[in-house]
Amino acid sequence: MPNEIHSHMRWNLYTFLVKHFSLTGWQSFAVMAGCLLLCMVIPYLLGSFNFGLIISRRKYHDDIRIHGSGNAGTTNMLRTYGPKAAALTLVGDMLKAALAVILGYLLVNNQAVAYNEAGRFIGVFGDKPGAAVAGLFVVVGHMFPCFFRFRGGKGVATTGMVRDGVNIQQKFVHGDHLWGLTKVQEHLQKYPDFIKQGGKYQIPADFYEKVKRLLNMPPEEASRLQSGNGDGFTYSQWNKVQDFFRNSGISPNDIEPASLNYADVQVNATDQTFVNERNKIQEMDQENRNRAYEASKPTVQEAAKAAGVSAAFEGGTAFCIGVYKKLKAGRKISEFTAEDWKELGIDTAKGTGAGGIRGAAIYGMTNFTATPAAIASACVTAAIGMVAQSKKLRAGEISEDDFVNSSEVLCLDVSVSAVASLIGQTVIPIPLIPNLLLVFRQSNPLVF
């Protein structure tokens, strides 16, 4: 025979009141209705604390609903204000939802927790109407907050697109016989802060030209439009355009022409419009490529600049190394003789000259032969080193075997340095650093 199941109700306000006051029948039903009403009202008020709107207004003195998708949620906050504002919005919305559900659970809960005779947990039975109702109404409050004129920003009609941080709302409407201006005014009435926050309206390019012409038309000329002129304008349309900008609170600067005409977006013309726009984008892309190519062509001025920078860097490095060697030998700077300074000057001059030659040669190789900078630097360094070894050989300072051995070590050294620089350019996101390290390493192989 199975164990007898003993169950008890989790504490909730409804159960407590019914048991404490021994309520039955309609009394119990009335208490249930009251608790459910609290599950609607309190979570709705919690949901009305829209953290996206609160943060945008308090911290940024702005309204998130006029940016991006028009939604006051985490994603739009991330796109508009960054990760910190988005994280605060997410945490705030999650906390109010959790609090609402817990509150509903504590108000009405028909759930029973069952145990067997030994007191061991078996399962949970029943339902949680309070939590379900509370969860629904906290969402309603989030979408239609009473504290923010019942506009939680869920609609995506606030902004059509964003251009350079400016919200754009397009109105391609012809049925109002006022070239979309009526729809512009309707949108502004629905979202009164749109223009205040820097938003712009766009109407078809051909409509814009008509509105602009009627707006700038003097009354004397407009009075001759009684029956319409060759452009189809009427005196009534002139009056409507003038009244619109005079009474709507919208200035001509708040409206701009779209890149397309009205006819370009009609059903039978959209395919050709896409083709035309794609061709325009391709032409613009090619123009940008051509300009970039012209701007990147090597010049004498840039070659001189590269040689100068390399000369300064390598000359300065040679001077510092020379001073370091003397200090390491136990000499103080105050004890340097004229001969020491002369030696440092000669080393610095040699380094400056070699750096200038290196910079000019690398600039030429990278720009005229498409050689990577690391390889070009290695080739130039190897050539300079070979010349120095050849001078020593001719002067009798080294033997032929020493020359061969030194040349092999030199070529191996610059090859390893070139490979290391190429790896560094891949790993280090700042291209200049690996190349500077390469020049320093190849100019002073004994330092490391």
N-to-C terminal Cα separation, in Å? 86 Å
Structural class: alpha/beta
Rg over CA atoms, rounded to whole Å, is: 40 Å
Helical proportion?
55-70%
Mean pLDDT across the residues is 79
The major β-sheet equals: 4 strands, mixed
Work out the strand percent. Answer: 5-15%
* Overall 3D form: flat
* Low-pLDDT regions: 1-9, 111-126, 154-159, 429-434
The helix count comes to 16
Strand order of the largest sheet: 4-5-6-7
* Counted beta strands: 7
Sequence of secondary-structure elements: EHHHHHEEHEEHEHHHEHHHHHH
Ordered list of secondary-structure elements with their pairings:
Elements (H helix, E strand, L loop, with lengths): L5 E4 L3 H8 L4 H23 L3 H8 L15 H8 L1 H25 L4 E4 L5 E5 L3 H15 L17 E3 L2 E5 L10 H10 L9 E4 L1 H12 L2 H4 L12 H13 L7 E3 L12 H26 L4 H29 L9 H31 L4 H22 L5 H28 L4 H12 L5
Parallel strand pairs: 5-6, 6-7
Antiparallel strand pairs: 1-2, 2-3, 4-5
Helix pairs in contact: 1-2, 2-5, 2-6, 3-5, 4-5, 5-6, 12-13, 13-14, 14-15, 14-16, 15-16
Report on the architecture of this protein.
The protein is an alpha/beta fold and 448 residues long. It has helices at 13-20, 25-47, 51-58, 74-81, 83-107, 129-143, 181-190, 205-216, 219-222, 235-247, 270-295, 300-328, 338-368, 373-394, 400-427, 432-443, and strands at 6-9, 112-115, 121-125, 161-163, 166-170, 200-203, 255-257. The strands form 2 sheets. Strands 4-5-6-7 form a 4-stranded mixed beta sheet, covered by helices on one side. Strands 1-2-3 form a 3-stranded antiparallel beta sheet, with no helix packed on it. Helix 5 runs antiparallel to helix 6 (129-143). The longest helix is centred in the C-terminal third of the chain and has 31 residues, at 338-368.
